[in-house]
């Protein structure tokens, strides 16, 4: 055997050895990952229920099994990603295809993560340079830089110390790699942020996005997108919203409103499936309270029970502005009524014709008469004054309200008392008068605190998308999907209220959060709030 042959043989043996070692590493890592998952589940099972804070962050026992399911489904070789239960189960299973096949129409690029040159040394053997063993395949990612979709195979370079090897030690060092966004998924931050903003900001349903992605050669199914929304909520958005909620509950003044939503499949061909009547609740902080950031939290709940609000607002002891739905009366809080709501009762009294609904009746001069019109004018005078106090501090505002508005408010209620007997109770105007007198104490609450708005407009305008464009805002077919949607709407609307671009924000947090241990770290979570300095600096609209 010549020297060259000898060397070749040795080289082949070394390569074989390297491959065996790389395999071993993979198997260790898999075992470690499994152990970490198991450990996390044990931790949740042991502590999940005991602490109030944890209960806010995790939404219940399903979380555990959902996590499990996500793992199992993905390992079972379901095409693409994060198959998180419900959405996938309801879907008729297609013949199994693997991820490679799904993405084969797109060219793959290599993203090889290198160990920095300065770190290619051994701690045990200073001065011994590490020898390259090869690269280890980690995952496939789909990255989106509009209008380009690219597939990257991520590899990690692995090095070994020859001196360690001599001593029969492992001595292996790998290049640092950022954690993946979701386990067993090709999703990346910009891609996920785009998908979510198309749906939750621009109201483009997943089934329409599916076609658009297909045109780019990327076979991303509606089920994949729904699964992403659910999984991203579970890992990232629910913890963020949980932290937002803590800040919300600590506020002095809150708004609440609720509206119906229908939970059903997004795809039109399935819209005839049984629909479930449920409620979306909206909680918001007061725009007049400088101490509190602008927060909007949506909560999805089946049924319009007042218990939902009571449960959500547990621990809140400030003033709640709402539409006088009796369910809110269970709360241990002060109540404030909305003047816009009360005024609407009088507007309804302007025309006997029920078809002339809403503010439209005011445009017809013929309707501008009678007691209802007089009431509307009086209310208008008070809110015009209030409008001028917008930029004052709460203390100054309170002072000016007492000086300017209180006398008019008192006159208004004295006048209502005086006309009460004159109007036949069968007229709408009588109902409006009774509504106002009945809610008098709550309507006057705002006079005593400059942080309480006169109306519930903040809540009503935040929840309007659900009321107006209900058809465009369809949820994925499960309560789990509706919960995820509520979390995403909460972030999107809170961003808008804080002048933050929702897409930049989602991209930012989805880049920052993976791999960080934020679950019990309120300070870290606070740093990702739309009002935080870092977010304000990076994600301005
Ligand atoms: Zn060494």
Based on secondary structure, the structural category is: alpha/beta
**What radius of gyration results from the CA coordinates?**
30 Å
Which distinct ligands sit in these coordinates?
zinc ion
H/E series = HHHHHEEEHEHHHEEEHEEHHHHHHHHHHH
Tell me the number of helical segments per DSSP (H or I, 4 or more residues long).
21
- The separation of the N and C termini measures 71 Å
The pLDDT mean sits at 81
- Contiguous low-pLDDT stretches (5 residues minimum) are 45-78, 81-96, 269-273
What percent of the residues sit in helical stretches (DSSP H or I)?
40-55%
Strand content: 5-15%
3D architecture notes:
The protein is α/β, with parallel strands linked by helices and 541 residues long. Among the domains are: 104-184, no CATH class; 339-453, no CATH class. Helices cover 49% and strands 13% of the residues. The chain contains 21 helices and 9 strands. It has helices spanning 3-47, 52-57, 62-75, 86-90, 99-102, 162-166, 189-200, 206-215, 222-249, 306-312, 339-348, 360-363, 370-387, 394-420, 428-438, 440-444, 457-468, 479-497, 502-512, 522-526, 533-538; strands at 108-113, 131-145, 148-160, 172-174, 253-263, 276-285, 296-302, 319-322, 334-337. It has a 5-stranded mixed beta sheet. Strands 1, 2, 3 and 4 form a 4-stranded mixed beta sheet that branches. α7 runs antiparallel to α19 (502-512), α11 (339-348) packs antiparallel against α13 and α13 (370-387) runs antiparallel to α14. The protein is elongated. The model is unreliable at 45-78, 81-96 and 269-273 (pLDDT under 50). Bound molecules: zinc ion. Zinc ion binds at residues 122, 124-125, 128, 161, 163-164, 171.
């Amino acid at each position: 055997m010549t020297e060259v042959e000898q060397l070749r043989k040795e080289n082949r043996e070394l390569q074989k050895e390297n491959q065996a070692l790389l395999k071993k590493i993979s198997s260790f890592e898999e075992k470690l990952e499994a152990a970490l998952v198991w450990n996390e589940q044990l931790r949740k099972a042991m502590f999940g229920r005991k602490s109030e804070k944890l209960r806010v962050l995790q939404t219940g026992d399903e979380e555990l099994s959902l996590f499990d399911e996500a793992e199992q489904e993905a390992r079972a070789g379901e095409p693409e990603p994060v198959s998180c239960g419900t959405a996938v189960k309801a879907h008729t299973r297609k013949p199994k295809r693997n991820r490679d096949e799904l993405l084969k129409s797109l060219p793959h690029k290599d993203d090889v993560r290198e160990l920095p040159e300065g770190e290619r040394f051994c701690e045990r053997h200073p001065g011994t340079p590490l020898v390259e063993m090869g690269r280890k395949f980690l995952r496939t990612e789909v990255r989106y830089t509009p209008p380009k979709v690219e597939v990257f195979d991520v590899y990690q370079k692995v090095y070994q110390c020859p001196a360690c090897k001599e001593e029969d030690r492992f001595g292996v060092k790998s290049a640092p790699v950022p954690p993946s966004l979701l386990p067993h998924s090709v999703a990346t931050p910009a891609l996920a942020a785009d998908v979510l903003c198309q749906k939750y900001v621009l109201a483009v349903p997943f089934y329409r996005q599916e076609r658009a992605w297909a045109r780019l050669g990327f076979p991303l199914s509606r089920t994949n997108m729904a699964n992403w929304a659910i999984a991203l909520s579970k890992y990232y958005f629910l913890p963020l919203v949980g932290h937002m909620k803590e800040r919300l509950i600590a506020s002095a003044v809150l708004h609440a409103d609720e509206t119906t939503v229908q939970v059903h499949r997004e795809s039109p061909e399935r819209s005839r499936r049984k629909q479930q009547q449920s409620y979306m609740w909206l909680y918001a902080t007061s725009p007049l309270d400088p101490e509190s950031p602008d927060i909007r939290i949506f909560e999805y709940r089946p049924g319009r029970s007042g218990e939902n609000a009571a449960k959500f607002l547990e621990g809140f002891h400030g003033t709640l502005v709402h539409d006088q739905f009796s369910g809110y009366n269970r709360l241990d809080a002060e109540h404030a009524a909305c003047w816009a709501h009360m005024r609407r009762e009088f507007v309804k009294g302007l025309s006997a014709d029920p078809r002339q609904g809403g503010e439209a009746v005011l445009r017809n001069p013929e309707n501008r008469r009678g007691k209802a019109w007089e009431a509307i004018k009086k209310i208008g005078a008070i809110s015009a004054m209030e409008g001028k106090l917008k930029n004052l501090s709460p203390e100054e505002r309170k002072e000016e309200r007492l000086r300017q508005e209180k006398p008019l408010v008192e006159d208004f209620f004295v006048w209502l008392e005086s006309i009460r007997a004159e109007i036949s109770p069968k007229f709408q105007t009588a109902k409006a008068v009774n509504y106002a007198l009945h809610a008098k104490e709550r309507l006057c609450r705002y006079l005593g605190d400059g942080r309480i708005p006169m109306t519930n407009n903040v809540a009503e305008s935040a929840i309007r998308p659900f009321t107006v464009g209900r058809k465009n805002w369809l949820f994925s077919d499960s309560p789990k999907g509706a919960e995820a949607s509520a979390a995403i709407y909460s972030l999107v609307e809170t961003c808008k209220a804080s002048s933050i671009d929702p897409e930049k924000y989602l991209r930012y947090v989805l880049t920052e959060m993976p791999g960080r241990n934020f679950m019990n770290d309120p300070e870290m979570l606070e740093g990702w709030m739309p009002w935080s300095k870092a977010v304000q600096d990076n994600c301005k609209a």
